[in-house]
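ARCHIVE CARD
SHELF: 3
SLOT: left
DATA:
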Amino acid sequence: MELVYGNPRDCLRRVVDFRKSAFREIEERFPEKTWLKTSLRKIKKVVFINSSSRSGSSLLFSTLRKIPGIYSLSGESVPFYKLNNLSFGRFASDEIPQDTAVNPGIFSDLSRDFISDLSVAGGENNIFKDSLLAEEYIEDIVLRLPMQWPQICFSYDSLKDLVTEAFASYRDTGKDFCKEEFYLELLSSLMQKYKIINPYYYDLPVRMIKSRFPELEISSGPPNNMLTIEEPPFIMLSPRAKATEADILGNTLLLKTSIDSYRMEFLASFFPEAQIKTIQLVRNPLGCINGLCDGWLHRGFFSHKLQSFIPTAGNSVKMLKISGYSELSEWGKWWWNYDLPAGWQDYIDKPLEEVCAFQWYSSNKAIQEYLAIRGENRCLIRYEDLIKGLGARIQEIERIMDFMGVSRQCIGQLGLENLPVVQATEEPRPFRWKNRQEKLLPLLQMSQIREMCLQLGYDKDNFGEWF
């Protein structure tokens, strides 16, 4: 029988306990795992991609993590922050003061969570030939699924059996490995036992889901009514070789998490031996704010159910009355999407476009303030230069590679000719923001938006390059 927890703290504790048990099982079979031999404090080189949400950081991250000499997490750090009490609930927003003390036990668990997830490029072509790579891939999926579906009481053994059987079934088709096709096979197996699992919460093309599950309705609202640990659209893991102790001591860690903008000084304390560099990715406000609006109205990007964690945050919060969002659904009264900047309480009854403008401004302001102190190792990249053409894209990626200190020789292997669609609400197209221009253009009259445009190098009167 499928069991579902109805309390967010029970769900969170269940996932933490599941992962601890799974790690013990793995460590008994593989006592030389990297997380047992080192920690975050030993990392020597870190590059953060810092940007506001919907600035193209997922696209840039997916490109740069293919580079040899780079190792990275599977996605954002947010799930590991939530598992280790470094999130809203303990704090009143996504901001964490730099002098916050982290319990040694919490740091140890966070370090294990990070290092166990770190990987390097390569793996898809060998996944059916390398039994160790296949076993590690299956273990990674088993560890990830409870963070995506925290309301389900998974059993480690039965979940591993299901994932293993789905992998074997897909392998036996004789096809070359395709992550999207494998996940459709996996989700089909999982849905037979766990009815509430829905493929529409994954970062999968809608057409592929409709083709495999023609009777399934497109989901709406959050994936559960309690909390998200990993925020949808859920990532699909790729088979990648695990980062080794040698990688940690000699290569570069690439991190991309939008809320890191608010906690860079705090995060720097995790890497006391590392040289820290920042890729500052910027995007014009109209394109970015429009993307945020689309995301708030999408079936993904749910960050916090405010109602669940207000008591521990020590705040008195009223129901959300964000016009253009809250009146459209019951969940719109309590679920906040994307980052939660300090001062968010002043925006719970503003129009959606103003909330999103506040998010764009707050994130970029936090980045600018951090770089004013630690800006000597910064590379500024405009999202518009990454998407306007292949020549410009190659030039920008080469500039980033030089900044990171990695060889350009692999640039032909990064697939820059065809950009992937990553964490998108719909297919990209030029000047999508013009669909909302009547609501967005007045935002440029706000003094703080105009000032930030100027700081980031965007001429508010030159919309021709704001595609």
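SLOT: right
DATA:
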Amino acid sequence: MGDETLYIGVDLGTFRSVMVSSDGHDEKVLTVIGTPKDQIAKGFLKRDVLFGEEALKNRLALNLFRPLEHGVIKDTAEDKKFIAHFITNIIGLGDPEDYDRVVAVIGAPAEASHVDKTAIFDAAAGSVNACMIISEPFAVAYALDKIEHSLVVDIGAGTTDLCRVYGTVPTPLDQMHINSAGDKIDGAIIAEIQKKYAGAQITKDMARRWKEDYSFVGNSEPDEPIIVDFSINGKAMSLDITDCIRDACEIIVDPIVSSVKELIAGSNPEYQDAFRRNIILAGGGSGIHGLGDMIEHRLADLGDVEVLTVEDPLELGAMGGLRLAMEVPEDMWKNLTLAHR
């Protein structure tokens, strides 16, 4: 394979990142990095750096780092070093050593600044020959063949990214992001439960798991009450958190609706009807039961509105990046000097 090019699409997420490649690799990795706390831990783990689920599994022996915050690289030398390690690791899962040339399209938040993009380019420089950074919601639209007058709402962990798409690379004016996303729901779940049950002891990981298993809004609640196990002042309990889950999930609805209205109102009036009829709900948060219907209902005052919820929210961004990598002309790539290959 030495004379072939490996094409890679990456969706770099605050909580989870996805990599797909032209030779069939499909990897999902939690965006977390761990380093041993001391020499005893280093001897036990037999590695200097651990990634993803393996890092979480051994977190008591590690210093954990989540180098992305609100969808962008934290602005510290340490976090930039660790995100470079992370990108090297996730691209390495595609066996790039079998190829002479490796190119990657990396999904970035909708309003990623020039500084953010430079940090991502720098992080990728040791792993790929050429790189392109695109808006994550644009990658979703490209994967779905929905680049003709669509409005993508990509609900991630750190941010919800919105983008008007109309057949070309979107400009900054076509995009926006808000911090009402999965992490905010997790915090709200904890707050709602502790308000209902004084002394409730709940971690963010517990709240995230309950969100992933039970999330809903409006009248889309499950047939049975949501009963979960947690401690109150150290005492084991099994309690109903149905209303807590609903109230927490609904906190992202109004900010999304307001942002969609702003993007539609700011578009060319001749195409506003097309945007209203082609709103795409993507990202992990799109899996909240009833969310698409509620957003559609809240937008009804704009006229006829259609909201499509995607079927495979976790991989679409990376798949769109891979497709772009294989289709865009060479002059759109930023060539990088490989430092470590």
